[in-house]
Write a structure and sequence with these properties.
It is flat, with a radius of gyration of 27 Å. Strands 6-5-8-3-11-10 form a six-stranded antiparallel β-sheet, with no helix packed on it. α10 crosses α11 (193-200). It is of the alpha+beta class. The chain contains 14 helices and twelve strands.
C-alpha cells in the first residue's frame, strides 16, 4: 500500500503531462498564500528581484517566521510528497526536513525504489542514501515489489548498474522484465517480448546475464524471447567455448554486500556433559542504535568431531514472528561458528529490543560461549544484549549459545 501512496507523482512518458498539470494546479492553489506572504513583508508582486526573495527565505527557515500559522506540521502518506514539493518550491527547509523524516520512518523494501526515485526528483541526497541501504540489503524484496515497477527509466538504469545489490542476477533479470511489462501497459503497448525489449532500451545491457549460472541462463533469459537469437547463441558460446565471443552484456558478478558479524562472547569452551543441543530453545534479546538488516546467526557446532544438526532460527519483535528458517548445517569439530541464514535479511529498527532464538537437535556435545558482553561495538553499530524469557537451554548474556549475529548495515 505504501508503494502505491508514494508513487502518485512519478513521471512516466505520457504521464509527465498529467504530472505537470497536477503541479500547476497545486501551484495555483498555493500562489495566493505566497502573494499574501510577500505583501505582509512589503515585497511588490511586480518586483522580479529573486535574489532578495531567496535571501529572505533563507534567513527565515521556520513556518512561524514566514507568517504561516504555526510550526506544527501534520503529515500523512497521502499528502507528504505534495507537501515536500511545496516546501522545496517555496524554500521552507523546516517543512522539507519534516517531510523527509516522515518518509525515512516509512521506508521499507516494498517502497524503497519508489522513494529512491522521489529522492532523486527532489534532490534529497540523505533520503536517497537511506533508500540505497534498504535496496542493497533487501534487494530481492525491493526488486520484486510493485513499487519497483513504478519507477522511472533513469532510476531503473541506476538500480541495474548498482554493484552492491544483494541478489542473484536471475532475479534482477526477472525484475527488469516485470518493470518492462508495466511500462508497456503505461505506454498502451501489448506486453510482448519485443515490446519489453524496446521499452527497456539500453537498460537491457545493464543486466549481467553472463554472470548467471548456465542453468539459470537456460531456464530464464534463453527462453524469455527478449534476447535475440544471436545474443542467446553468443552467450551459450561464452559459457562453453574456449574462444569466447564478445558480448554486449557485463560479464562480472555484482560484488554485493559483505555481511558483518557481531561477536558477543570473548571466549568459547567445552566440558564433558556440559552443553548439549537437545531440541530446547537458546534465545537472547538485543537492541541496536541504528537501523540494520538481520541476515542470520552464527552458531557453535560439535566439540567431539564432525556432526550434523537440524536447526530452526527465529527473529521476533515483541512476540511477533518476523522471520524464521528451518535447515541443517554440518560442523567440523572446531570451535568456529557456522552461519545459518534467514531467507531474506530483515529490517531491524533502532532502540527496540528484538529476540533471536535457535532450536537445534543433535547428539554431540557442543562448544559454548563465555565472558559474554552486555554491549558490543561493531563498526558503526552498538549492540545491547539482555536475557530472554524464551531461553530454555541455559543461554543468557554471560554465556551459552548464539555467539554471533550476522547483519548488513
Amino acid at each position: 500500500m505504501a508503494a502505491e501512496l508514494f508513487s502518485t507523482s512519478l513521471p512516466h512518458g505520457e504521464d509527465e503531462e498529467e504530472e505537470e498539470d497536477t503541479k500547476k494546479n497545486f501551484v495555483q492553489l498555493s500562489e495566493p498564500e505566497e502573494s499574501a506572504e510577500r505583501n505582509a513583508i512589503g515585497i511588490d508582486d511586480d518586483d522580479d528581484d529573486d535574489d532578495e526573495r531567496l535571501s529572505w527565505q533563507g534567513a527565515h527557515p521556520t513556518l512561524r517566521e514566514r507568517y504561516m500559522y504555526s510550526d506544527e506540521v501534520e503529515l500523512d502518506a497521502d499528502t507528504v510528497l505534495a507537501t515536500l514539493y511545496a516546501a522545496k518550491k517555496y524554500i521552507v527547509p523546516a517543512v522539507a526536513k519534516a517531510c523527509v523524516g516522515f518518509l525515512e520512518t516509512s521506508l521499507e523494501a516494498k517502497n524503497a525504489c519508489v522513494l529512491l526515485s522521489q529522492s532523486r526528483l527532489f534532490e534529497e541526497a540523505e533520503l536517497a542514501q537511506r533508500c540505497w541501504e534498504v535496496i542493497d540489503a533487501q534487494a530481492e524484496l525491493a526488486l520484486r515489489s510493485e513499487g519497483f515497477c513504478e519507477i522511472d527509466q533513469p532510476t531503473l538504469e541506476i538500480v541495474l548498474q548498482r554493484e552492491t545489490l544483494n541478489i542473484r542476477e536471475a532475479a534482477v533479470f526477472q525484475a527488469a522484465l516485470s518493470w518492462a511489462a508495466a511500462e508497456c501497459r503505461r505506454q498502451g503497448l501489448a506486453v510482448t517480448p519485443w515490446n519489453q525489449r524496446t521499452v527497456l532500451g539500453k537498460a537491457l545491457y545493464l543486466l549481467r546475464v553472463p554472470s548467471m549460472s548456465l542453468q539459470e541462463f537456460a531456464d530464464g533469459p534463453a527462453q524469455s524471447e527478449v534476447l535475440t537469437l544471436a545474443e542467446t547463441h553468443n552467450i551459450f558460446l561464452w559459457y562453453t567455448a574456449t574462444n569466447k565471443p564478445q558480448l554486449d552484456f557485463p560479464v562480472g558478478k555484482r560484488v554485493g554486500l559483505a555481511p558483518q558479524r557481531c561477536h558477543r562472547f570473548q571466549a568459547s569452551a567445552y566440558r564433558s556433559n556440559q552443553w548439549r543441543y537437545r531440541g530446547r530453545c537458546d534465545s537472547i534479546q538485543f537492541a541496536v542504535d541504528r537501523r540494520i538488516f538481520m541476515a542470520g546467526l552464527g552458531l557453535y557446532g560439535s566439540s567431539g568431531g564432525k556432526a550434523e544438526y537440524s536447526v530452526r532460527i527465529e527473529l521476533k519483535r515483541q512476540g511477533t514472528l518476523l522471520a524464521q528458517n528451518l535447515t541443517k548445517f554440518l560442523s567440523d569439530g572446531s570451535s568456529s561458528t557456522f552461519p545459518v541464514w534467514f531467507e531474506h535479511p530483515v529490517q531491524v529498527e533502532q532502540d527496540t529490543f528484538y529476540t533471536v532464538s535457535a532450536v537445534l537437535d543433535g547428539n554431540e556435545l557442543s562448544y559454548f560461549g563465555q565472558e559474554g558482553m552486555t554491549e558490543v561495538q561493531c563498526g558503526k553499530v552498538t549492540f545491547q544484549f539482555q536475557c530472554s524469557s524464551d531461553s530454555t537451554n541455559g543461554t543468557g548474556v554471560q554465556g551459552g549459545q548464539i555467539p554471533e549475529l550476522i547483519f548488513y548495515c
